[in-house]
Fold:
Amino acid sequence: MNRLKGKTAIVTGATAGIGLKTAELLAAEGVHLILTGRREERLQEVKKEFEDRFDVSVQTASFDVQDAEACKTFVDSLSSSIDILVNNAGLAKGTDPVYEASFDDWNTMIDTNMKGLLYLSRLISPQMRERNTGHIINVGSTAGHESYAGGVVYSATKHAVKAITEATKKDLHGTEVRVSMISPGLVETEFSEVRFEGDKEKAANVYKGMKPLVAQDIAEIIVFVANRPAHVNIMDTIIYPVAQSSATMVHRNE
Ligand code: NDP
Ligand code: 8X3
Structure:
């Protein structure tokens, strides 16, 4: 049953990977889209493609979620009320241990994965609360459930997404607004290329000899979570590829 048709969703980080595929699957369900990311050209390509393929409106806004003022300008510019906020924009930078990692990488991860997500939740949740309807879906990670060596700050930001999701649900307790989190394991997207600063070989090694998840696997779950009946609030979903059993247990065929 499609309960999503005619709704309006913001998807952050919709220029690639999980956000892009989520936007596509939402559009296929008849959801009007407001898509964000920093790469304006990609947003324009996606808008054109989705408007050609689907009977939905597609608005775009290119800005950096690390910039609180830019987030505010974006939300102030919205003319429609928002039914679904998919807080997906995020990244990892490097795999250096705590005694070697760069402050810049740490700040980028904290400012994007935590503060960007918080800014948009802060700015969109008042209208959801006032209308007594809406759904905030945060993209966390299995790294938000289990920390691993080389992921000190990435894991911390995703543990924070878990804490933010739980506290946001509690802040909105007694309203009809839903709050959920999605926690994927290894998904082959641009994620590892971003993490390794464009080093394609290092990125490919992350998924070598195993079958990782793909963006579609996660997007389908995001749409499933959004499409539950209004009284059902899925708090979290942990999704591994079958070859992965923990952050470091990955079965590879050499
Ligand atoms: P991609 O690199 O493919 O996509 C990331 C998206 O986030 C892009 O659209 C990018 O857009 C956007 N983004 C990154 N930084 C910013 C920023 N500062 N401001 C605005 N947008 C930004 O990675 P994934 O699709 O894999 O990642 C999506 C989410 O899923 C992230 O939160 C990630 O942590 C999480 N995740 C990923 C997993 C994986 O293995 N791939 C596993 C678990 C969770 P642009 O560059 O245009 O700004
Ligand atoms: C991304 C998955 O294992 O690289 O959240 O942390 S992992």
In short: The mean pLDDT is 98. The chain is about 45% helix and 15% strand. Strands lie at 8-11, 32-37, 58-62, 84-87, 135-139, 178-184, 187-188, 213-214, 238-239. The first helix runs from residue 17 to 28.
